[in-house]
């Protein structure tokens, strides 16, 4: 099905051509922030999204936040598993590059429903790559994840560490990375950048767009946010006996605004005449923060006391992981600038203005239909 809201058209109902980026999954958390920055940089952006884990309201808010440039934003409700619908989108305009965010990302759900995850994330991506190739669009930025480092043998993680992963979601990231490397070997015209995000958090400083997961959040920050606004009673801290400074797990949290500028840097690199092949970059800050440090920072930002319950380690979790940022700094000329306090401030700004996310309270806890 194709959806083409009036406010996202150029008035004539057809797309006119200038440097145009296709953003899959652009209604989601990272995609919406990146789309806004792309518009700010003067790109035309076509967002496609199944709205499986997002709502169209995020795209509308991005268009509003972009002001004049909002006219350069187009939205189609398309599921990547529907190759015919993808064909229609590609036949309407010529894309200069694709940023591929679309995918399901809940680790526990992927363990319970592996085939659903493999179909969505693998078949969806293969459809996209095939249609791109047919239409001569061979520039891609792919949302990979620090999950491909599995239980890392050393930290900080450099991009050349051995890759492994512990769950079906992680395997979809690892397999797509391998497919991308094979694709470039078979056809060196492809330019592919694999961005391995660490732990994305925060929100746009306006508080108008942010993360709004469907159902019970899997990740620390959205759960913490829902406790702070009173949607959940307490935060469960998974594991207090890790060999870290306070016994809780250490992660590399990165502000979504920094991630978005990382994508702009990657797109710019795709357009350089240099041979870049298929290459991976970490997007992280290089700094590790414990769960209790995040809770303390969030309490400072929100002025709310977060009730905690201490529990055993969550299966599959590693003790400590954070990025080496050297390769991205050197080759993308990109470096994260936001601090943990900035991340918590912006997360709370989004949460306090949108305690039920983009949705009506009756729908906010809904499961996937
Ligand atoms: P998100 O769920 O907010 O956004 C993903 C979007 O993809 C959603 O809007 C969803 O509706 C859409 N989508 C899913 N399957 C689709 C399909 N078959 N066709 C079209 N659209 C589809 O998640 P996010 O946090 O913005 O993550 C974006 C990407 O980054 C994902 O690929 C995710 O795996 C990856 N990633 C996320 C994190 C994280 O912690 N947020 C970390 C590392 C990597
Ligand atoms: C962070 C820390 C938890 C929730 C996951 C995916 C990974 C990537 C990023 C997509 C850990 C602790 C969490 C809670 C807690 N996503 N925690 N209570 O596990 O580093 O990575 O998201 O690619 O693939 O696995 O992130 O936010 O779930 O956990 O104590 O309710 O917070 O144990 O130490 P994680 P997270």
TrEMBL record:
NCBIfam families (alphabetical): galE, PRK10675.1
Keyword NAD: yes
Pathway: Carbohydrate metabolism; galactose metabolism
SUPFAM superfamilies given in the database record: NAD(P)-binding Rossmann-fold domains
Protein known as: UDP-glucose 4-epimerase
BP GO annotations: galactose metabolic process
NAD(P)-binding domain: residues covered: 22-346
Catalytic activity annotation: UDP-alpha-D-glucose = UDP-alpha-D-galactose
PANTHER family: UDP-GLUCOSE 4-EPIMERASE
One GO CC term on file: cytosol
Signal peptide: none
Species whose genome carries this gene: Ceratopteris richardii (Triangle waterfern)
Any matching Pfam family: GDP_Man_Dehyd
Keyword DNA-binding found: no
Source domain of life: Eukaryota
Known cofactor(s): NAD(+)
EC number(s) reported in the record: 5.1.3.-
First-level EC class: isomerase
InterPro entries per the UniProt record, alphabetical: NAD(P)-bd_dom (IPR016040), NAD(P)-bd_dom_sf (IPR036291), UDP_G4E (IPR005886)
Entry GO MF terms: UDP-glucose 4-epimerase activity
Keywords: Carbohydrate metabolism, Isomerase, NAD
Family classification: Belongs to the NAD(P)-dependent epimerase/dehydratase family.
